[in-house]
Amino acid sequence: MAASVTTADLYEGTYYLLGGCELEAIEAAKLNGSISCSLTFRGERLAALQKEYFAGTATVPLFAFRRAFCRINALVWTAKKKARARLQQDERRLGGDP
User: Fold this and answer.
1) Closest among 80, 74, 85 to 35, alpha carbons compared
2) Number of domains the chain contains
3) What whole-number distance in Å separates Cα of residue 74 and Cα of residue 67?
4) Whole-angstrom distance, CA of residue 79 vs CA of residue 5
């Protein structure tokens, strides 16, 4: 069975994506007055990739990493935008200030 991990580190997430892991979910939540996103990945090689990443031995093809990072960053930006809109709508519905 494939392992899964959740992270808010976009570089870490990009490394997992390039390593063949699947981005399963992006969840946005209000944290200290701003919106933060967590990324959940699943993959057979996830444990090995995580070990390499945190040991500082991870290597990537730079151009592919840059492209994947831009894709993940765009997905996170979209998730944050939707979360802000949802929060503003909830605050208006409850009579609070946006």
Assistant:
1) 80
2) 1
3) 11
4) 19
**Secondary structure in 3-state letters for the chain:** CCEEEEECCHHHHHHHHHCCCEEEEEEEEEECCEEEEEEEEEECCHHHHHHHHHHCCCCCCHHHHHHHHHHHHHHHHHHHHHHHHHHHHHHHHCCCCC
Residues of the chain with pLDDT under 50: none
Q: What is the pTM of this model?
A: 0.86
Q: Examine residue 76 and state whether it is found in any structural domain, yes or no.
A: yes
Query: In terms of residue numbers, what domain contains 63?
Result: 3-93
Contact 40, 5 (CB under 8 A): yes
